[in-house]
Design goal:
Length: 222
Amino acid sequence: MEEYDATLLDDITDQLEWVPSVNEAAIRVDVKEGVVTLSGYVDSYIEKRAAEEAVERVSGVLAIAEEIEVRPPAPNEREDEDIARVAAHALEWHTLVPHDSVKVIVEHGWITLDGQVDRRYQQRIAEQAVHHLTGVRGITNRITVKPKGKPKQVKEEITKAFERSARLDAERIRVETRGSKVILHGVVHSWSEKREAENAANAAPGIAEVENLIRVLPDTNE
């Protein structure tokens, strides 16, 4: 396992160096039994997300503990009022976000999104609409999803979405529904494939929560 972790650490380091929007020198990477811990300090929230997404794409990553802290340099510091105003405009101008249903609160550079939408992907897109703004240190997403549709119907729609995806092996993933909650089970080859399955489930109407219990087993023949 130590040799496996050492190889994985090298792959992650190379991946972070490959991404132009990430200052790899500011990020510490620790690997233990396939679980990656990211720590350190970056200049912006979008750089923090870019680092995490880069690591997700590395084969062999089983899980990620993200502990990176955002410390905007002095020229990029913004008052909470300014961040809130720009964030509200960003949501208003985004065609996929029902901006009249989402409220923005900013405290010490940390954005909290609140409100209710029809689909979970809108919840995620609302966060993406503001995570690139200057001065943002972090985001708490408290947007909820309106319940809609019957569990059996939702399960069938998600399963069909898996079958349509070129990046997923639908036979390895099982969908369980509990009211407006979806639970994903199964085995995939990479962390990015696990995230792809979660994203597909999030697109179903009326899903309030997705619990992703899919296991990552690189190069498994199960």
